[in-house]
Amino acid sequence: MIHTREIAGYIPSTHESNLVKISALGVDEAFLREKIGVLRTSRKSAKEETSDLCVKAFEQLQAKMSFDQESVDCVVVCTQNPDFAGLPHCSAIVHGKLNLPESCAAFDIGLGCSGYVYALSIVTSFMQANQLKNALLFTADPYSKIIDEDDKNTSLLFGDAATVTWLADSGGQTGWTPRAFMFSTRGQSWDMLKNQDGRLQMNGRAVFNFCIKTVPAQIRLLLEKAQLNQNDIDLFLMHQGSKYIVDQLVDVMGLDPRRVPFGAGDYGNTVSSSIPLLLEPHLHNAALKRIVLCGFGVGLSSAGCLLARKEEKT
Amino acid sequence: MEDVESKLKSIVADVLDKDAVTCDGDFQRPLKELGIDSLDAMTLLLKVQDAFGLPDISDEDMARLNTLGGIAAYVRQNKERIAS
Fold it and tell me: What ipTM was predicted for this assembly?
């Protein structure tokens, strides 16, 4: 059984204050605080590459625990903003920078906000199919590479970050196991969130409409698949698109807002890193038994799954 | 036809969690003056689509629909189009 053993995140220490930017962008402070919900966005330095963010996340993992790099069988990077436009694959660069063994598989996953949930499914399946013991799943999608700072639709929202999730075949040990995956895609709307000539363009309304229609239905199906109901779930960790979308999902689904945190106010929407950043502080909370993860955005795409503790009989 | 206005009023109350429409004149006021910002307007129109069984409202129409009166007229026009 493959478990999520540990997560570490790296958020660059440089931030841009949205409170400083809003007047030039014609946004009022109440709207920023109550609707966008992001007061500062994290920004990598110009010298830092996507792979460097992954290395920093790995250093955070090492600071938490001793980790034998020789034991890594698989390294995966989920990104749509890789070094060198993706050639070579970012995971190979990370593999080199971390001096991982040559026997280690390395590949990238080109997905955005739904990427972490997809990646959990892909990597755990890959590990099971190939009897691998340890994988490092990185997320790093620094949108500062493509953001137009004058575009109020995006520059107040997106921040840079990276995370690493250690997935391990831990034998009899307890841990979090992902299952009951659900996926959906609305390819007809692919151009609603895109990189156009090196600049991010987003039709926020189209993305919002997709999310508010798709996510509640997807989570309902996910719970049916897992034979659970909403009250069985300790936490719903939604992609941190904005405070507004998280609040609206709470409202539409009739969820207890205390179980649906918004935590991106100090660094922004970090794309595929948003869910693992939110999950990290809860991973060792023994009181939690079941967590629903749901990512949505670029594609347009959404993916959800249940994380359940191993000892649970479900 | 009054039904459209009363249904709209209740949708606005649902979106804003309060009764923002207190008189007929509010239907001619800009949405912003009623406390409906751009994000609330997205939610409002999505709920209007669902409540009246309308097809997706285009971005162009969305940009023009900046009063509740305009939205009510849009609903009637499109309901008639669907019915015919």
Answer: 0.81
